[in-house]
Design goal:
This protein is of the alpha+beta class. The chain is rod-shaped. It is built from four helices and 22 strands. Helix 2 packs antiparallel against helix 3. It has four domains: 43-70 and 310-378, conserved putative lor/sdh protein from methanococcus maripaludis s2 fold (Beta Barrel); 73-82 and 228-306, Beta Barrel (Elongation Factor Tu (Ef-tu), domain 3), CATH 2.40.30.170; 91-118 and 192-227, RNA polymerase II/Efflux pump adaptor protein, barrel-sandwich hybrid domain (OB fold (Dihydrolipoamide Acetyltransferase, E2P)); 120-182, Helix Hairpins (Orthogonal Bundle), CATH 1.10.287.470. 26% of the residues lie in helices and 38% in strands. It has helices spanning 3-33, 119-150, 156-183, 370-378; strands at 41-43, 49-52, 60-62, 64-80, 85-88, 94-99, 106-107, 112-117, 193-197, 202-207, 214-215, 224-227, 231-239, 251-256, 263-271, 281-289, 299-316, 321-323, 326-332, 337-349, 353-358, 365-367. Strand 19 (326-332) and strand 20 (337-349) form a beta hairpin.
């Protein structure tokens, strides 16, 4: 072999060895930079139980104990205070000329609601004028009788008769004046039209009249009903077995479904003495001031607090999984297995903790972050 051929052989061999070494280094670096494999999760038996290869990725926590007063949550609705619902009446019968208010309007005391043209008023004013004329004549005759009695021209009995006639005429005038006032007319403004005014301030919650309709006075339905809504009733249905948590005179918290973040307080003023035979519930009435946003018929949630306290479990809020409108937690059942347990979540507590009303007892262990485990099982 010549010297030139030998040198070419050595050069090719060195290049081949270098290439092989570079290839091995690149493969080693790629293996070192690869991400760690995800923990393997498999379902065991039913879909609520899972098995993991790396349980250290899913830390568990022991449920704490929370002592809370006994609470009863019931539904109810806002109703007007019956004692504050005042009917508007027209004693005078006749034809309705004008209607100045309608259902749902807010009115003030003394505001004109409607005008009625009434023959009763016309007849009353006619009788009033006649009675005044009779009274004037009776007084004039009594004055003459007094003069004649003083001169001895008439007997005492004749004077007494004149005095009696004058007294009766005065009584008749007073009676007709009162009748006109009862009918709602003004003595100083003789007219066949009577104005019907609002007796109180409030909201018109019922209307039974329209323009050009007729009214028969007290024989007809009340034209309007005005309710003072500054104070309202909350009427709730409480089941027979829960009545032990409701006591007369105590307070309860009220939340409007329309404004769930706002909490109000009401006083229990009545517990129905008769149960609904089909539902086995009693009507419980709360009285409270209207904060201004309560409308009749609104649904509310009322919370009554009993005297006995209750012990519930408490866990981190992250341990509770909200799925399909229900609450779940993952409880460890072995070294690396977990079971999905349905619970009833309660109110949120400080430090991001949540009360568990049922399904979990203090001391039970659950996965700290149920969502992480759930997402892993879904992959």
């Amino acid at each position: 072999m010549s010297r030139k051929t030998y040198l070419q052989f050595l050069l090719c061999g060195g290049l081949a060895l270098a290439a092989a070494g570079c290839g091995k280094e690149k493969k080693a670096d790629a293996a070192a930079e690869a991400p760690p494999a995800n923990p393997v999760v498999e379902h065991v038996g039913d879909t609520g139980s899972v098995k993991v290869d790396h349980p250290e990725h899913f830390p568990v926590v022991e449920a704490g104990k929370y002592t809370a007063p006994a609470e009863l949550n019931v539904t109810g609705s806002v109703m007007p205070d019956v004692s504050r619902a005042i009917p508007v009446i027209s004693i005078a019968s006749g034809r309705i000329l004008e209607v100045h208010a309608k259902l749902g309007d807010t009115v003030t005391k003394g505001q004109l609601l409607m005008r009625v043209q009434s023959a009763d008023i016309s007849g009353a004013f006619s009788d009033y004028r006649q009675a005044q004329a009779d009274l004037t004549l009776a007084k004039s005759q009594l004055d003459r009788a007094k003069i004649l009695l003083d001169k001895g021209a008439i007997a005492q009995k004749d004077y007494d008769v004149a005095a009696n006639v004058a007294e009766k005429a005065a009584v008749t005038v007073e009676s007709i004046q009162e009748r006109i006032r009862v009918l709602g007319a003004d003595l100083n403004k003789p007219s066949s039209i009577v104005d019907i005014l609002a007796p109180i301030s409030g909201v018109i919650t019922d209307q039974q009249v329209t323009t050009a309709a007729g009214t028969q006075g007290l024989a007809s339905p009340n034209p309007f009903t005005i309710s003072d809504l500054t104070s309202v009733w909350i009427v709730c249905d409480v089941f027979e077995n829960d009545l032990k948590n409701v006591r007369l005179g105590e307070s309860a918290t009220v939340r409007l479904n329309a404004y769930p973040d706002q909490v109000y307080s009401g006083r229990i003023s009545n517990i129905g003495p008769v149960l609904d035979p089909s539902l086995r519930t009693a009507k419980v009435r709360l009285e409270m001031k209207n904060p201004g946003n309560m409308r009749m018929g609104m649904f509310v949630t009322a919370t009554f607090r009993g005297s006995a306290s209750q012990v519930h479990a408490v866990v981190p809020a992250t341990a509770v999984l909200h799925l399909h409108d229900r609450d779940w937690v993952y409880a460890p059942t072995g070294a690396n297995t977990y079971k999905q347990v349905e619970v009833t979540g309660g109110k949120m507590l400080p430090q991001n903790m949540q009360e568990i009303l049922s399904g979990l007892a203090p001391g039970d262990k659950v996965v700290t972050n149920a969502l992480v485990l759930q997402n892993t099982t879904d992959q």
